[in-house]
Amino acid sequence: MRLILLGAPGAGKGTQGKRLASHFGIPQIASGDLLRAAVAQGTPLGQAAKAIMARGELVGDDIVLGLIRERLQQPDTAQGFILDGVPRNLAQAQHIETMMRELEVQPDAVLFLEVARDVLIKRLAGRRICTKCGSVYNIYFDPPKKAAELCDQCGGSLVQRPDDEETTVVRRLDVYQDQTRPLVEHYEMLGLLRHINAEGTPDIIFQRILQVLPAQ
Ligand code: AMP
Questions:
Q1: What pLDDT digit, counting tens, does each position of 85-135 carry?
Q2: Are strands 136-138 and 81-84 parallel, antiparallel or unpaired?
Q3: Catalytic residue among 2, 71, 127, 194
Q4: How far is the CA of 33 from the centre of ligand 1 (A)?
Q5: Whole-number Å distance between alpha carbons of 141 and 137
Q6: What tens digit of pLDDT does each residue of 57-96 get?
């Protein structure tokens, strides 16, 4: 199964990508995670990306495509993969199509996760992440139950991603509308697009996704 997850920041690509990855036993390849790892490691690439990410803008295509090309060459992608957060503009989409042709594979579907803008803002601005185990909470929709600002799983402290601060969130949504949203028409034309109502609980949304996926 080879899937591309398309949708605004906060649409649930990470959450659903994780579920799909474990359901199909294939890796989730999240460009944002690859970039954050490079920033945390302080690599030259990470240093170049850090300020751009903090502003909520898109990192250069060369950087992102280099990371994705390298990742797609790992042996664990042989049975399939889930692209999460990439492509994010038309140039990236075309490069990824070329990469997949070179690997002699094709996407099975592009899942377009649709969420209203006011819900996206609450999902992003309310998101909190455990510094120890990476569990994700939301202060509006899914707050920690044991203690405010502490992880239920491991007791680690919860922090906000720097680019989830409200002014940056608005910038990210504008960048999405301007550069990424046009990919909907692109994939519709290629006959790959599947619309998913991505409001509701993660379980319900996952069921909706499974219903539209091609049979394996
Ligand atoms: P995400 O975790 O997908 O929300 O991505 C966080 C940030 O990483 C974005 O706001 C961008 O600055 C950068 N980023 C992630 N994926 C891409 C991509 N495909 N192209 C350019 N920038 C990206």
A1: 999 999 999 999 999 999 999 999 999 999 999 999 999 999 999 999 999
A2: unpaired
A3: 127
A4: 8
A5: 8
A6: 999 999 999 999 999 999 999 999 999 999 999 999 999 9
Burial 41-66 (b: 16+ CB within 10 A, else e): eeeebbeebbeebeebebbeeebbbe
Q: Which residues pair with 114 in a beta bridge?
A: 197
CA 159, CA 143: separation in Å to the nearest integer?
13
52 lines ligand 1 (CB under 6 A): yes
Kindly give the number of the ligand 1 atom that is closest to the alpha carbon of 84.
3
Among candidate residues 19, 50, 71, 88, the one labeled active-site is 88
- Unique residue bearing structure tokens 């690997």: 103
Cis peptide before 75 (omega within 30 of 0): no
Domains of the chain and any CATH numbers: 2-26+79-212 (3.40.50.300)
Residue 106 has a pLDDT of 96
Residue 12, exposed/middle/buried by CB under 10 A (0-12, 13-18, 19+)?
buried
